[in-house]
From TrEMBL, chain A:
InterPro entries: BCAA_transport, Leu-bd, Leu_Ile_Val-bd, Peripla_BP_I, TAT_signal
Keyword GTP-binding attributed: no
Keyword Signal in annotation: yes
Leucine-binding protein domain ranges (all copies): 35-375
Keyword line: Amino-acid transport, Signal, Transport
PROSITE patterns: TAT
Name this protein carries in UniProt: ABC transporter substrate-binding protein
Lineage top rank: taxon: Bacteria
SUPFAM superfamilies: Periplasmic binding protein-like I
Record-stated family: Belongs to the leucine-binding protein family.
Pfam families referenced in this protein's UniProt entry, alphabetically: Peripla_BP_6
Signal peptide bounds: 1-32
Lineage: Bacteria, Pseudomonadati, Pseudomonadota, Alphaproteobacteria, Hyphomicrobiales
Automatic annotation (TrEMBL), chain B:
Subcellular location: Cell membrane
Lipid biosynthesis in keyword set: no
Keyword flag Disulfide bond: no
Membrane topology field: Multi-pass membrane protein
A molecular function GO annotation: branched-chain amino acid transmembrane transporter activity
Keywords, sorted A to Z: Cell membrane, Membrane, Transmembrane, Transmembrane helix
Annotated GO CC locations: plasma membrane
Protein name as annotated: Branched-chain amino acid ABC transporter permease
UniProtKB/TrEMBL annotation, chain C:
Cytoplasm keyword on record: no
Single GO cellular component term: plasma membrane
Topology versus the membrane: Multi-pass membrane protein
Protein name: Branched-chain amino acid ABC transporter permease
InterPro entries: ABC_transp_permease, BCAA_transport_permease
Membrane spanning residue stretches: 6-28, 35-57, 63-86, 98-119, 139-161, 190-215, 227-252, 264-285
Molecular function (Gene Ontology), one example: transmembrane transporter activity
Keyword list, A-Z: Amino-acid transport, Cell membrane, Membrane, Transmembrane, Transmembrane helix, Transport
Length: 385, 332, 293
């Protein structure tokens, strides 16, 4: 039970009828109690709930670890969760405001989506709470807020690395572009375009889709007709899987490269054999032989039997560990102190990468390029910018 | 009902509404936390949207699903005009005017459409507007939306925005009652209850329907401006076509054609999910079931229930003159 | 060029067939009880989840038993909807009932996530990713199955409605429930049957399209919208209209995306829809006096 309102005991109808009248019961502000509260703002219901589930899992492991060791300066950590419905500015602003003012959290993990973090940028400054987000759009850190920390690879860097790889190492000449028509896909493909322009390459064809697109036949045929050597796609896991699967069915010859979706489990499951040969720029694959990743896999499987960690659980686990590390070093447990300490972090060894703060709030600076072979993404290149 | 009686009710109602608004303005910040104040602000914006929808859906009996589009057009126009250097009042008037003009442009060609055909046409329009907001990156900045909109400098100031929104909603509420009680209201009721008979006695139905569309759209545009003032950030996600169904549900759950219903429906639909957050991932499932239950128990909407309670209380004292504005058993 | 054109049209027809199946459900319920069931798409999702999440993944049922069991479960669920949603609201204003189906839609989508989890489920179906070559173009065999299923359902429906006592009772109930009741037709049971049948149609659509992509809680949302568009395009209440509207909408989307713009495909498809309604306000097969109070 997270809310201070105890509606649960009343019947639904009563709760409903009394809801507006119950307002005075809402007043109660949380007492400055013993545990330290940190918040998660993520999609917990609806179509994006999977990401929220992963956020929760990753954070929970980090918090349990520190609580088992006796907490921070004797204080336990308590995680408060608020549903922000993903890319929903109104719900995200409500979720963050609730966490900040009602639950009085000292730091935030999330919101995960660009339209979720953007409306909250001014609010984070107002409530003086740092937020560690995995939203990759360049626009997120361009806001110049000292309260926003990005724990994933900025698309502006990632896209450039990928374009460099396909044009120089793979020698693609005619390139098609595909993207999901959301904040994520639009800003991702914009940096791909800019990066291509830098190398004097003009994409021969650009195609857009939505998360609801289930048949890519017409798009794939259009790429084929344009005679592309390969396509660069910036999209979510599900469309990535369908594009790869349907390209395989249609027997196309061009190569497929894209954002980290093209190495993630949902993609692999949907694409099946079609996944083979697909390339991605990302930060994390669970089959990385690196011993930190392997240890993390064991830890995760112990906490969630039968499950394996993927990118988001891992990134937000690192985010929670960053917050914990900042709290351990800070002279006080407050949003301001944690924010200040986070900016002093230069070389923090996480599972995904080594984190280090730079002026604009980006904390991750290296990426890996993977290529799927036999249904498993293999690392072809590790790049540090 | 004589004009005198109407004027009297109107004056009494005005006092009541303004008093309620002032009371809310004074009391809510004392009793509500910052977070619930923000929810209250969002609720007020939703009330505005549903009041607008009331004109075309409740009064006109026309099933329009385009309210989210006018919401978006108002918000984006206001933002872009302000970015072009126009002062806030000018940008606001421009935004409302454009929303109204688009309302007319939608209302006129769809005059021949009835029932579900109109519903789909307006829904298709809403979807097209949303796609344009996403795709027309040069103008709207695409799906990333527009950040740090100055507005009147009150973005995120939930307590101060409460006063602004209360004032706007009170005026919009009274305007709706005033229109419904005035000479236009008579024609509106004639249109809703029996379009053929209304036409026979000389009501220009086409003009009336378009007028309702225009007022409806203007309210939607005004709500868009309010959203910009409150949030300082807009993106196409705020105005998604799916959200239009929430406004429809608010209008119906509250009670169609009733300003009080608009307020009650918006309060229910905005506040209750926030109150149910403690149920974690179950809360929207529970809320969905709740909507079904409310509709089942109060098919005429919450306002119908409130009015019948009030009426049964008053009937004990004296016979009560029925108010047409806030009382409709039958929907569109 | 011609080969590509054939491919585009075939895919459009196949995608449109799924719209048509859902649209048929809308039409049936509308004809029977004058209710637009906005949760129709979510019944597609529910059918797919029951089939994949429970019967296939948990119980490992063989495919045909899976289909039959799923249809029985969803049929019972549909009859329960008639009893739980329609009956309490049968005398309420039409819009109230519509909003109740919106509430149902919200509840179903969220309950699906609670039961089956938020991760999309994969389903190979009978054919997996088998593809066939037709007129020189490549197409999933599953698409042909969907088209065949649509044709079969149309035939079954025709026989059921025109040549059986049950069908006559259904039509009588649809035309005038009160009169039908006075004639001794058990209208409550007939309406429950219509709901069950419409739900099974939606569920069948879910079972058929699941192997083509994946099963997720939101899969009904866009299907709902497009099936509703198909219903309107064809003419509300018309069974051939639902069929033609569904297929036409699928082809418009597929061809529009290839020949004009994938970015603006929704604008194109729904723009065409608005344009058609401007010239034919009752849809292709609709009758002008269709609207009921």
């Amino acid at each position: 039970m997270v809310s201070p309102v105890h509606v649960s005991r009343r019947s639904l109808i009563q709760a409903l009828a009394l809801a507006p009248l119950a307002a005075p019961a809402i007043i109660g502000r949380a007492h400055a109690a013993d545990p330290i509260r940190i918040g998660i703002s993520g999609p917990m219901t609806g179509q994006f709930a999977q990401n929220g589930q992963w956020m929760k899992n990753g954070v929970a492991i980090a918090v349990k670890q520190v609580n088992d060791k006796g907490g921070i300066k004797g204080r336990m950590i308590d995680v408060r969760i608020a549903d922000d419905l993903g890319p929903n500015p109104t719900a995200a602003a409500n979720a963050v405001t609730k966490l900040a003012t009602q639950d009085e959290v000292v730091a935030l993990v999330g919101p995960h989506y660009t339209p979720g973090i953007l409306p909250n940028v001014p609010l984070l400054g107002k409530y003086k709470i740092p937020a560690l987000t995995g939203a990759t759009g360049p626009v997120v850190t361009q806001q110049g807020s000292p309260w926003v920390f990005r724990v994933r690879l900025n698309d502006a860097i990632g896209a450039d690395l990928l374009v460099k790889y396909v044009t120089e190492d793979l020698q693609w000449k005619k390139i098609g572009l595909g993207y999901v028509n959301t904040a994520f896909g639009q800003s991702g493909i914009a940096v791909v375009k800019a990066s291509l322009a830098k190398r004097n390459v003009e994409p021969v064809l650009v195609q857009a889709h939505t998360d609801a697109t289930k048949d890519y036949t017409s798009q794939i045929l259009a790429f084929q007709q344009a005679g592309v050597d390969g396509i660069i796609v910036w999209t979510d896991d599900q469309p990535a899987g369908l594009i790869a699967k349907q390209s395989k069915t249609l027997g196309v010859k061009f190569g497929i490269a894209g954002n980290t979706a093209f190495s993630q489990p949902i993609f692999l499951g949907l694409a099946g054999e079609g996944a083979d040969g697909c390339m991605a720029i990302g930060e994390f694959v669970k089959d990385n032989p690196d011993q930190r990743v392997q240890a993390w896999k064991k830890l995760y499987a112990a906490a969630y039997p039968g499950d394996e960690p993927e990118l988001y659980a891992t990134v937000y686990h690192d985010a929670a560990r960053l917050i914990i590390a900042a709290m351990e070093r800070a002279d006080a447990i407050s949003g301001e102190a944690i924010q200040k300490t986070l900016t002093e972090i230069r070389d923090f060894q996480g599972i995904v990468t080594r984190y280090g703060w730079t002026d604009n709030g980006d904390m991750t600076h290296s990426g890996i390029i993977t290529r799927v072979a036999g249904g498993k993404p293999e690392i072809v290149k590790v790049i540090t910018s | 009902m004589s004009a005198d009686a109407n004027a009297l009710t109107m004056r009494a109602l005005a006092v009541l509404v303004i008093a309620t608004a002032i009371l809310c303005g004074l009391l809510l910040p004392r009793f509500l936390s910052v977070y619930y104040l923000q929810v209250a602000d969002v609720t007020l914006i939703n009330i505005l949207l549903v009041l607008g929808l009331n004109f075309i859906l409740g009064f006109g009996g026309q099933m329009s699903l385009a309210q989210c589009a006018f919401f978006g057009i108002g918000a984006y126009t206001f933002t872009l005009l302000q970015a072009a250097g126009m002062p806030v009042p000018v940008a606001a008037v421009g935004a409302i005017a454009l929303s109204a003009a688009v309302g007319m442009a939608l209302g006129w060609p769809t005059l021949r459409l009835k029932g579900h055909y109109l519903a789909l046409c307006t829904l298709a329009f809403a979807l097209i507007v949303e796609r344009l907001l996403v795709n027309w990156e040069g103008l709207t900045n695409g799906a990333n939306g527009i950040t740090a909109i100055p507005g009147i400098g009150l973005a995120g100031e939930n307590d101060k925005m409460l006063w602004v929104l209360l004032a706007i909603v009170a005026i919009a509420y009274l305007l709706q009652v005033w229109i419904a009680n005035g000479p236009l209201g008579l024609r509106i009721r004639a249109l809703r209850d029996d379009p053929l008979a209304a036409q026979a006695v000389g009501v220009d139905i086409s003009r009336l329907k378009i007028m309702l569309f225009v007022i409806s759209a203007a309210y939607g545009g005004l709500a868009g401006i309010c959203y910009v003032l409150l949030r300082g950030y807009i993106s196409p996600d705020v105005f998604s076509w799916q959200s239009t169904f929430s406004y429809l549900a608010m209008a119906v759950v509250g009670g169609l054609g009733s300003p009080l219903g608009a307020a009650l429906g918006a309060i229910l639909y905005t506040f209750v999910p926030e109150l149910l957050r403690f149920m974690q991932e179950y809360y929207f499932a529970v809320f969905g079931v709740m909507v079904i239950l409310v509709i089942t128990f109060f098919p005429a909407g919450l306002s119908g229930m409130v009015i019948s309670v009030v009426r049964s209380l008053r009937r004990r004292e004296k016979s009560f003159a029925r108010s047409d504005v806030t009382h409709h058993e039958r929907a569109a | 060029m011609l080969q590509t054109f054939i491919q585009i049209v075939l895919v459009g027809l196949a995608v449109g067939a799924a719209y048509a199946l859902v649209a048929l459900g809308y039409t049936l319920i509308w004809n029977a009880v004058s209710l637009v069931n906005f949760a129709q798409g979510d019944l597609v999702m529910l059918g797919a989840f029951v089939s994949v999440g429970w019967l296939a993944n948990r119980l490992g049922m063989p495919l045909w038993l899976n289909l039959v069991t799923m249809l029985v479960i969803l049929g019972i669920f549909g009859a329960a909807l008639a009893w739980g949603i329609y009956h309490p609201l049968r005398n309420a204003p039409q819009l109230s009932a519509i909003v109740a189906t919106l509430g149902l839609s919200m509840a179903l989508q969220n309950i699906a996530v609670i039961i089956w989890g938020p991760q999309p489920l994969n389903f190979a179906g009978a054919l997996g990713t088998t593809s066939v070559h037709l007129f020189g173009s490549t197409i999933y065999a599953q698409y042909l199955v969907i088209l065949a299923a649509l044709a079969a359902m149309m035939a079954i429906q025709h026989v059921l409605f025109q040549h059986t006592g049950l069908g006559r009772a259904m039509r009588a109930t649809a035309q005038d429930a009160e009169a039908a009741r006075l004639m001794g037709i058990p209208t409550a049971r007939i309406i429950a049957f219509i709901f069950a049948y419409a739900t099974m149609l939606a569920a069948l659509a879910g079972w058929l399209i699941a192997p083509l992509s994946y099963v997720s809680s939101d899969m009904g949302v866009n299907l709902s919208l497009r099936a509703f568009a198909a219903t309107i395009l064809g003419g509300f209440g018309s069974i051939p209209g639902a069929l033609v509207g569904g297929l036409a909408f699928g082809v418009i989307e597929s061809a529009g995306s290839f020949y004009i713009s994938s970015e603006y495909i929704d604008v194109i498809a729904f723009g065409v829809l608005i344009a058609v309604l401007m010239f034919r306000p009752q849809g292709i097969f609709g009758e002008l006096e269709l609207e009921r109070p």
